[in-house]
Amino acid sequence: MKTYATIAAFREALDTERHAGRAVGLVPTMGYLHDGHRSLMDAAVVANGVAALTIFVNPLQFAPTEDLSTYPRDLQRDLAMARSAGIGHVFTPDVAEMYPEAIATTVSVAGVSSALEGASRPTHFDGVATVVAKLFAIAGPCRAYFGEKDFQQLAVVRKMTSDLSLPVAVVGCPTVRESDGLAMSSRNVYLNDAERAAAPVLHRALRAGREAIEQGVRDAAAVRAVMAEVIAAEPLARLDYAEVVDAATFVVPAPLAGTLRLLVAVRFAKARLIDNIGVLA
């Protein structure tokens, strides 16, 4: 496994792999890797001739009031996990390498980015789309692997990639969960013991909403109320949003029909967690 701190060296390494006839799988991350990231690396290793990992905590996707300075980091642990997964190349740039000057160009994806996370974190998806577009430009033609845990982010990346005709196949991978249903997330480290015990309430709320739809409920407000009631029963949790949308457009159908996605965001003292599941109506 080789590591690179510069754009030029990482780009050259992946170009060399393609020239040798090897397809490239790319796993973009912000580091502090867990088993969810490991599942993305495993998928990339299995499906491609070589797999590459990027580790970069992107300041563009953090608002001034968010946790950029305290976001968890453990590069040596991340590199050990990447090596054990069979990753061939790791890109670990610093901010000066990615953004040597004040950035004047940003990528904004209308529609799918406007609600939910886009409403709660107004600058977030422009930052995500910009850094992912840059990473795709650096990496070149590849398959890129993203987790469905950040389902709206996955939709934004897919739409951006399609609209800009980027030579990247975006692959969504299932959410990896703890045994009690909590979606794996780097931000779970912010939870204290009591909050960690309470955190599976997100998944319980989503399952309750899915059950309501499977039982024939077709009114989005009623499904939102079912999920909100589950969250409200947990005193340590504060609901940010609970929603049901069309999985492709993020529009709320009336009545509910087709391939849907249930999404929730919940705040604890220091942690804000998100989760989602799919359902057919």
Automatic annotation (TrEMBL):
HAMAP family: PanC. Its EC number is 6.3.2.1. The lineage of its organism: unclassified sequences, metagenomes, ecological metagenomes. Keywords: ATP-binding, Ligase, Nucleotide-binding, Pantothenate biosynthesis. PANTHER family: CYTIDYLATE KINASE/PANTOATE-BETA-ALANINE LIGASE (PTHR21299), PANTOATE--BETA-ALANINE LIGASE (PTHR21299:SF1). It catalyses: (R)-pantoate + beta-alanine + ATP = (R)-pantothenate + AMP + diphosphate + H(+). Pathway: Cofactor biosynthesis; (R)-pantothenate biosynthesis; (R)-pantothenate from (R)-pantoate and beta-alanine: step 1/1. Pfam families: Pantoate_ligase (PF02569). This is pantoate--beta-alanine ligase (AMP-forming). GO terms for biological process: pantothenate biosynthetic process. GO terms for molecular function: ATP binding; pantoate-beta-alanine ligase activity. It is an enzyme of class 6 (ligase). The keyword Nucleotide-binding applies. Belongs to the pantothenate synthetase family.
